[in-house]
Amino acid sequence: MASSYTLFFFFFFMFFCDFAISSHIASATEEDEYVLTLDHSNFSQVVSKHKFIVVEFYAPWCGHCKNLAPEYEKAASVLSSHDPPVALAKVDANAEENKGLAEQFGVKSFPTIKILKNGGEVVQDYKGPREADGIVQYLNKQVGPASFEIKTPEDAANLINDKKVVVVGIFPALSGEEFDNFNILADKLRSDYDFRHTTKAELLPRGKSSVTTPTVRLLKPFDELFIDFQKFDVDALEKFVEDSSIPLVTLFDQSPTNQPFLVKYFESPNAKKSKYTDVAGVYKGKGLSFLLGDLKDSQAALEFFGIKEDQTPVVIVQKTNGLKFINLNVEVDQIAPWLKDYMDGKVKPFIKSEPIPETNDEPVKVVVANSLGDMVLDSKKNILLEFYAPWCGHCKKLAPTLDEVAVSFENDASVMVAKFDASNNDIPSDTFEVQGYPTLYFRSSSGKVVPYEGNRTKEDIIDFIQKHREGDETTTEPGKDEL
Ligand SMILES: *[C@@H]1O[C@H](CO)[C@@H](O)[C@H](O)[C@H]1NC(C)=O
Ligand SMILES: *[C@@H]1O[C@H](CO)[C@@H](O)[C@H](O)[C@H]1NC(C)=O
Fold it and tell me: Signal sequence span per UniProt (predicted)?
């Protein structure tokens, strides 16, 4: 269920301008000390000795893994002196002999990071940041208590965030099976929700102020605002928390928060909204969550998905694997049938693209998502392709250099210099991996792809193209005789 979960979780922050992969690689290979290297031969044995160990499943070719490596190492060195120590490990999940391990842990993408507790008895997903300080902070929170006690009105004010789902256990005494099970659940779900416990129901902002039997009160900023629950076996508790913390429909407003489960619940129902809510009711708990955006407040989201105002109302399904399914100018009555088609696998993913430009006669050619196939993948040319974003300063600096490079190949029909605005066009995931701007790739006429990581000077880039170009024996007098 988790893998098909549809969350409207926006990825603006994943693209940073410019990057320094090469220096990261260099530092990661030499000083690997604190991160333990595990493989199929010693994985279980090492894990069984740790109360708390974090394992990264990586692949040597994965760019995100390379970027993570120095940060992970730094975090490992800081956490090695934590009391009790927190161990960080890695497994090359791409190696043939470790594929069994990768399968066991459901590794489908890289890096996949798992937290293993009690010698591997408890396995959780790592859902924290990917830079050293963030990793340390996140893991410190993971080894600390899973639930905090509310003893005073001040605690209640500090520990209850009224914009988040907060799960509070209310107990006559802080002991017993119910309390233990609550803590087991808190530990299990601590990265998704805030857990609190108290003996004083009167300190809570909502719900009955006196409670005589152990009760879990889930406070949430939408729908019915709080729900009490009194069954204490761990599975029932878990199902209760997961089910009741997904809003029927989530409103996307000006402040998209990283907390996927909430934002504000919309007020003032009208026909469209309530129809949508009906549909949402049908699919609740089936791996879909719903988002409703008000036009005025959703500009950033529309831009992110590449949707124009006159294409609304729109229904969007965003899968956690990055695929998008979009139904533009949707009629209210089409929502349910379209969703059924989607669930049945009949809807094709949506690819964001700018229009293919009518004229494309600058030295550096413009490639958009919809022309990537024709102009690049099927072109049989030698192509230097820049992935850029209009706002990226390093890209602007590089532009005149690329122009000069392009001009120098102007009479060479088998070489093309092109640019792709990756902030306004989707890059099909099986083509180029782009993690920062600008990213330069060279793709030879036979389809060999090499990242350009050299200096960004005209001379170096031209040399690189000359070195990697292919298929020139068939080229004859380019271009001119067409005139
Ligand atoms: C596990 O085994 C691999 C391969 O033999 C070795 O490189 C690695 O250091 C071992 N890890 C530990 C923590 O013993
Ligand atoms: C880039 O330039 C610097 C100094 O200008 C030089 O030391 C370095 O070797 C160059 N790198 C490449 C990949 O050519």
Answer: 1-22
